[in-house]
Amino acid sequence: MLAKCFVHKFQLQKNLTNSQEDDFSCQRVGSIHLGTRKPVVKIKVGPPSLQRVITLSDNIIQILNSGNLQFIPNIKLKNIITFAISNKSSQGASVDMCLSTKRNKLQLYLLDLTKINFIQELSVQESLISMSMDEYGILACSETKYFTYILEINNDRLSISSSQIIFTLHDSSIPSYCTNITSGEYLINGPNIGITTTLEGTSQRAPLMFTSQPNMFIYSHPYLIAVVNDYIHIYSYLDDQPKQKIHVGYCRTLINIPEENRNSILINTKDKIYLLESISIEKQIDQLLFKYRLDEALNLAKSTCSITEKQQTNSLIISTQKRIGFIQFTSLNVIQALDLFDAIHLDFYEIINYIQDFLPLNSPWPNFDENNRSKYIQWLTAFCDYMIKRSTDFSLQPDYYSSILKAYLIIKSREMIIEFLEKNASHIPIDFNNLLFNAQLYHGVAILYSAHDKHEETIEIWKKIVLKEYPNDDDTFPGIWVIAKYILERNIDRSVEFSIAKWLLEQNEEELAIKIFIAKHKDESNDDIFCSDRVMSLLKPYPTALRNYLEQAAFKLMIETDDIHTTLVNIYLDQLLSKSPQDDEHIRLKLQEFLIKSNSYRIQSVLHRINQTDRLKREVALLYGKMNNFEQAFEILVNELEDFEYAVNYCTALSYEKSSEDRKIVAHVLFKVFLACIDKHPDEITQVLLRLLCNNEIEFNFLEVLKRLPSHWSISLLADILLRAVRSYSYTERSTKLELALSRLQNEKLNIKLAKLKCSNVIVNEYRRCKHCLHQFYETSCVVYPDGSQVHIHCAKQLN
Asked: Where, in residue numbers, are the CHCR repeats (predicted)?
């Protein structure tokens, strides 16, 4: 501390009290008289590594040891107006200094532990009365002008490279003053404003507006302390607003004492010394948040960030952003809150803990009134948006999908909740069924059970929904078909599958039941619960379902048992005989198609039943054809029914998948039947015969056909028949020649191979053994296989 021509050293100690205000005890531990006649006007404490105190009194600079307040010998600089030291130390225990002299000189020095070294001197236009210095340069001012001097280092030597005037005061009543804010950034005093500037004279921020013109000021992050007559004005450098005004009396000097996490300012008046201690950053942030000055609190936290304090300040920034986020969240400013949560990568568990009634997750929501419900909707909507946005980070955590589900119960429609469950139920614990039951989402409970392979429980819930056993209907249940779909898509216990199919029958869902019976059929053994015998016995009370099942069993499952095929034919017959002839055309066509395609029904039994009525002559013909009694079959179709076209089509059907000779037999039978009745219907039979003989799907022996054709037919009438006959015989001839040629070629290849084998040498000695019996060869004869292995002749005969 400084008094008139004296420098005193005091030790301040904070006393522990219960009061809200801090109490200090002060003890003087040293003092020295500077040997001058005038008061000390400026004092600076050097870097801790240097342990020096620099004083200016009576225009003389003297250097003291900060530990014992003893003079450093041989260091005394005279005619000094003011000085400044750099805020960054040089390498080792030293510091750069700049001085302003009465001879209008600007001098640079390097102060170390033992001496002060002169570096450079520069003439200036006017006497400099205030200056500030950092590693980039010097900002100084005369009574009316502000100057900047840019420093550079050449060969480890500091020098001034350039200078310029950046501002001029035209009002002599405005005191000129400057101070350093950060490295390369300064504040100069203007007409009721503080102007931020760089050494180039540029500024990136608006001027700070003073409420009163200050005489001097000093920066202590994040505040600017300005002296205005008998008052201290404190401004926040973050928002440029005045924060406090303190009466202290006339102030002579301001000294900044940096400490960890805070700065303290010593204020010297004529007869008093004040300690202006800033509140810790954390407390300042608390106060700002309490007053809902959120942006200011966040800016204050961010302003503390520096390279040396990166980890600590980052945690402070994150903590502040989190608190602001939750304040915004509570105030329903959810968009701003989500931006902050996203910026700090906030874990969703912290949001869950913050929202009342969210935990435990599997507990139901309470009944909200309208106001609370509106508030929760906004909170939970924002929460879900945040969860979905950060799904890449959160989706692997166990409660991610469970948390979304609980939020959806408030904010989403029942249909959207079901859609969410269909996609993600496997990630949700099964004990959430109570939560869904409470929301009357019974179909959702079934989906949850299904995702955890609780098949019987799933089906039981759906059955209860169908049977309306729950107090309220579930409008999200798609329908009873979902039960059949569930069975068809899974392989669960077959007895359960059979019981569900049976239950569907009881609910008059015959089509769904048939789908299950068909899809789950394995074989016709009695071990299979879905064998056709059991299903048929079950379907007897349901004739339509039985018919559909038998049709699919015959055509889809390809079951070739006579019971199934005969029963299906009898069902068709029952339906035909129970209806009038005008109503039975569709069923009759199905019966005829089945009689032609199927080979497994009991023909005699069916024929006996059909013969009991005269309405089914065509079906009788089909049965005779199935018994290979083609002549009688075609007699009925041609002579009795006179359905010539049907006879031709039936001939084509009978020829399907038969050998060439069998096809000719069937065709010639029909040909003979047509010829026998040609006199009865000459024109019609003639046209049918022409179409029959020209049908490429039916084969004939045209030599016999041409012999039997009516002799009165003209050559023009026979032209198409003769053309087909020539083509058929030509094709047959060519095919025969190709087959002979291919056979001859194959024989030649085999003869060549045989000749090569005969010419090849086969060595048989006492070391060779038979491939089959593994005994030695005692004869010169042996059998050689294509792979070159050799066996005894008798071994080869036994194996072949």
From this structure: 520-686
Rounded CA separation 572/588 (Å): 8
Cis peptide before 360 (omega within 30 of 0): yes
The tens digit of pLDDT for each residue in 85-136 reads 987 755 567 899 999 999 999 999 999 888 899 999 999 988 999 999 998 9
Nearest residue to 399 via CA among 423, 428, 364: 428
Q: Does residue 772 form part of some domain? A: yes
Q: How many domains, the chain? A: 1
**Above 70 in pLDDT, residue 2?**
no
**Which one, of 239, 234, 366, 349, lies nearest residue 297 by Cα?**
239
Q: How far does CA 93 lie from the centroid of its chain?
A: 57
Alpha carbons within 13 angstroms on the beta-carbon side of residue 494 total: 10
Using CA atoms, how far apart are residues 449 and 456, in angstroms rounded to an integer? 9
Lateral strand order in the sheet of 251-259:
251-259, 262-269, 273-277
Residue 197 in contact with residue 203, Cβ under 8 Å?
yes
CA distance 752 to 79: 128
- For residues 782 and 778, what is the distance between their CA atoms, to the nearest angstrom? 10
Confidence (pLDDT) at 696: 86
Q: Is the pLDDT of residue 313 over 90?
A: no
Dihedral sign, CA of 462, 468, 470, 475?
A: positive
What is the per-residue pLDDT across 735-746, written as a single tens digit (0 to 9) for each? 889 999 999 999
Higher pLDDT, 39 or 447: 447
Could you read off the pLDDT of 152-169 as tens digits, one per residue?
A: 888 778 888 888 999 999
Per DSSP, the three-state class of 161 is: strand
Asked if omega into 47 is within 30° of 0 (cis), the reply is: no
Q: Which one, of 42, 32, 41, 28, lies nearest residue 7 by Cα?
A: 32
CA distance 326 to 320: 10
The per-residue pLDDT for 489 is 93
For 293, which DSSP code?
Answer: -
Q: In angstroms, what is the C-alpha Rg of the chain?
A: 55
The residues that bridge with 62 in the sheet, in sequence order, are 55, 76
110 CB-near residues (< 8 Å, 6+ apart): 90, 94, 95, 96, 97, 116, 117, 119, 158
Q: pLDDT at position 312, please?
A: 45
Token pair of 418 as six digits:
């079901």
Measured CA to CA in angstroms, residue 582 lies from 575, 579, 588, 592 at distances of: 13, 8, 11, 16
Spacing of C-alpha 251 from chain mean position: 65
Cβ proximity of 78 and 44 under 8 Å = no
State the pLDDT at residue 436: 93
1: three-class secondary structure by DSSP? coil
- 713: tokens are 């037919």
pLDDT of residue 308: 46
Largest distance between two CA atoms of the chain: 163
The residue segments making up the domain with residue 784 are: 761-799
**Is 297 within a domain?**
no
Provide the 3-class DSSP secondary structure of residue 63.
strand
Contact between 86 and 135 under an 8 Å Cβ cutoff? The reply is yes
Q: Mean of the pLDDT values across residues 248-252?
A: 81
pLDDT of res. 20: 56
Tens digit of each residue's pLDDT (9 = 90 or more) over 518-531: 999 998 888 889 99
| Each residue's pLDDT tens digit, 259-305 | 655 677 888 887 788 888 777 778 888 888 888 888 888 888 887 76
Contact assessment for residue 393 and residue 387, using Cβ atoms and an 8 Å cutoff: no
Domain assignment present for 679: no
Residue 775 in any domain: the answer is yes
